[in-house]
Amino acid sequence: MLKEYNSIAEVVGPLMVVEGVGGVNYEELVDIELQTGEKRRGRVIEIDEDKAMVQIFEGSSGINLTRTKVRFLGKPLELGVSPDMIGRVFDGLGNPIDNGPKIIAKKKIDINGTPINPVSRDYPEEFIQTGISSIDGLNTLVRGQKLPIFSLAGLPHNQLAAQIARQAKVLSGGNFAVVFTAMGITFEEAQYFIDDLTKTGAIDRSVLFMNLADDPAIERLATPKMALTCAEYLAFELDMHVLVLMTDMTNYAEALREVSAARKEVPGRRGYPGYLYTDLAGLYERAGRIKGRKGSITQIPILTMPEGDITHPIPDLTGYITEGQIILSQELYKQGLEPPINVIPSLSRLKDKGIGQGKTREDHADTMNQIYAAYTSGKSAKELSAILGETALTKSDKAFAKFADEFEKNYVSQGFETNRNIEETLDLGWKLLDIIPRGELKRIDDKLIDKYLGEKEEDLKEEE
């Protein structure tokens, strides 16, 4: 039974306190009717005896404490889902904004979701090809994984996100879909994503949820939950492989801090609420695979590190929850590399499970380790050359330094339009390793070197 009250005691920012309520539940949906007849939506975020605190999605301006009616609907915030959502664009609360017809829902699902039972989780072990060599070759994305991208303000993470949304696919087959959610972005950025996916045809396998910078902060908190609810429906009820891209998690955390301050909660690190870790985990842990289900959810959250500080609470806590990170470098961006992925601090903790014979290629693991070692050696050699001069370098040091330059120029910097399959990425890796003397390839099995590289003339001369 619907319950209606006009006993508003206080309004602070996006929050409203209603007194004298009874039988109201946490996360319950609320209809608010202003004295002008305007209607807004909210949800219950706290209950204390006969008082309920309500978050108002559209903001609290214009609310009259005595003449505004508050109606508790007896249900949580839900998303109406349907296979027809694919190819559509929605706002942060799941309303269509692409001038298309209204979605006729097959069912309505609570956006807060239910945690996946750890016993029911299946281990991520299937390769997802993004078409980006720095990720596919060295920091492989695996189906069911959570692999965030750490960026800085001004770096091209939006172009990288659009590239992944266009190019990503599961090589083993199956229906693949992308759920793209944007939080607190500008209208120009939102239009860029829509235009890019539409132009390339990737919109036909995508669902977009767009929360703009001028939308209420409360809506921003619901947006990723809307997107993940849609992803869960596609993955676990329609058996699709779903890749969820979420940008920008920093804007989400800022909205959480804003609401926490309005609630007068005791702040934690940098003013963020103490439950920031729990809140982020509630989103990230909705990714994964379930035993007995064909579908899966893979997540790529994108966040801009405030002041480039990787120890800031948002990237710091994200790193604890997820299985690695892809880090964009301002230094590489200034050198003109696109995408400017710094492979040295980047890491995919599940990459070993998604590569090898039958998944990518037999030589993937060995070449990955050798390329990483050669690149770090090359960077060290270049630093040594800058201090002592090139004459201080050995023949091997010079080879490694050349490798580092060619690696950045040809392997990392592939542009935002180039889509390399895994075979092309691995073959390019061998081509670059040909710069290094064979005797220095200590991390690759000799049989693989003979098969993919052969013997160089200088190596034969040395043997003679």
TrEMBL record:
Pfam families: ATP-synt_ab, ATP-synt_ab_N, ATP-synt_VA_C. Residues 8-74 form the ATPase F1/V1/A1 complex alpha/beta subunit N-terminal domain. One of its GO terms (biological process) is proton motive force-driven plasma membrane ATP synthesis. GO terms for molecular function: ATP binding; proton-transporting ATP synthase activity, rotational mechanism. Keywords: ATP synthesis, Hydrogen ion transport, Ion transport, Transport. CDD domains: ATP-synt_V_A-type_beta_C (cd18112), ATP-synt_V_A-type_beta_N (cd18118), V_A-ATPase_B (cd01135). The keyword Ion transport applies. It comes from the Bacteria. InterPro entries: ATP-synt_VA_C, ATPase_a/bsu_AS, ATPase_F1/V1/A1_a/bsu_N, ATPase_F1/V1/A1_a/bsu_nucl-bd, P-loop_NTPase, V-ATPase_su_B/beta. Residues 131-348 form the ATPase F1/V1/A1 complex alpha/beta subunit nucleotide-binding domain. Residues 353-452 form the ATP synthase A/B type C-terminal domain. Belongs to the ATPase alpha/beta chains family. Produces ATP from ADP in the presence of a proton gradient across the membrane. The V-type beta chain is a regulatory subunit. This is V-type ATP synthase beta chain. It comes from Peptoniphilus lacrimalis 315-B.
